[in-house]
Design brief:
224 residues; alpha+beta; 4-stranded antiparallel β-sheet; 8 strands; 32% helix
Length: 224
Amino acid sequence: MNQERMALWENFVNAHGVEADAKPLFDELIPASVATKKIGNRLLLQRSGAAEVLISTICATLEDDWRRKAHEYDGMLYIMLTKERGQVIPLYIGKAETLGKQGNLSANIKGVSKNANKGKFARWGDGRQYHVGDLSAEVLPGYEAQSADSKYKKWASAMFESFPTNEPKLKHPVFLWAKAWSRADVGVWPQFGPTRLTFQEYLLIGLCSSLFGNRLLNSEGQNR
């Protein structure tokens, strides 16, 4: 059974360019040493330029699709990952949907393509309750202690050698893959045919939790 599931994952990785198109998530001063920046009094982990271009380009596509009322795309599907012995290991699977409340363009997407939304940045923003902002609060000094079961404490433990620290160092390279998910895209279970973004995220989390166990950092949607 696991061989069949692994084949599904590897086929998805190849079909959607997950390994080929993934970008380093962080700006690294030297290999594994993550650069930081300061905004006001907050010290933050620095996304790589390649990751920012990837997200901005996808958000431009989503915003254009929304303005034209074409409804071709549901939003952005993303996978934070590492690579080990020639295999793509998913660390976190998520989505940023195009539509917000009442059919408006989501605040997570709006302005990203113009570099004007670094706080939210399609879920990868510097603000609190966003991935980079909350991960920074665990990894870097100067923040109040988070709860012991914090989602981002688990991220920090999985990704960084020690924390909190002024010199964050990765345990292994971390990459970000993302794409504008079309309603015509066929996902990880091809027998379902084209699948919508929310369902595809659910299917990926379920499959990868059965394959990669505790390596996958998603807390919702996992097989137990």
